[in-house]
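Long-time lurker, first post. I've been practising inverse folding by hand and with some scripts of my own, and I keep getting stuck on stretches where the structure tokens seem ambiguous. Below is the full token string for one chain I'm working on. Before anyone asks, I'm not after the true native sequence, just a reasonable design that respects the backbone. If someone could post their per-position residues I'd love to compare against what I wrote down in my notebook.
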């Protein structure tokens, strides 16, 4: 069978994610730790996929998130740091062209992702530590980000709902 977006949706039982794309929870630590927002698992992990034409809209977490490339087209992670600097990292395995197979997005960074080029889908894994909770998740509107970072208007318009 050919691996494509539909293959991974079925194999992993992916469902729609509020930020865009699709996901499924894959691992949750049995240990937990206290955080300023309450008790959280030590880590949580998901499979996350973008299909052709989808983006992961700009959002923010209160924990670090580690991204791991798995399959398909390379994935560009777009980030706006706490001090307003915009940067990108391309996840993939073609290290000679500047791709990297994993990335840490620091807590508090505003970030989203899009596919790099053709390929039909990008499949990655994401581990959050301390563990993910939707109470710690903020999805941004275009207006909200344009007010804060007008210098990044072009990417904000692409990466917000």
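-- Answer (accepted) --
I ran through it position by position. Result:
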């Amino acid at each position: 069978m050919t691996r494509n977006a539909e293959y991974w949706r079925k194999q992993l039982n992916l469902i729609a994610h509020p930020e865009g794309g699709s996901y499924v929870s894959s691992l949750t630590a049995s240990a937990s730790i206290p955080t300023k927002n309450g008790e959280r698992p030590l880590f949580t992990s998901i499979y996350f996929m973008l299909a052709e034409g989808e983006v992961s809209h700009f959002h923010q977490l209160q924990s670090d998130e580690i991204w791991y490339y798995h399959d398909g087209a390379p994935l560009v992670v777009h980030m706006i740091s706490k001090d307003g600097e915009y940067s990108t990292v391309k996840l993939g395995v073609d290290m000679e062209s500047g791709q990297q197979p994993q990335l840490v997005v620091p807590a508090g960074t505003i970030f989203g992702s899009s596919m790099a080029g053709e390929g039909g889908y990008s499949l990655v894994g994401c581990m959050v530590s301390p563990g993910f909770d939707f109470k710690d998740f903020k999805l941004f509107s275009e207006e909200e980000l344009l007010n804060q970072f007008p210098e990044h208007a072009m990417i904000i318009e692409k990466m917000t709902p």
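A couple of notes from the structure itself: Helices lie at 5-12, 142-148, 153-159. The first strand starts at residue 15 and ends at 16. Happy to go over any region you disagree with.
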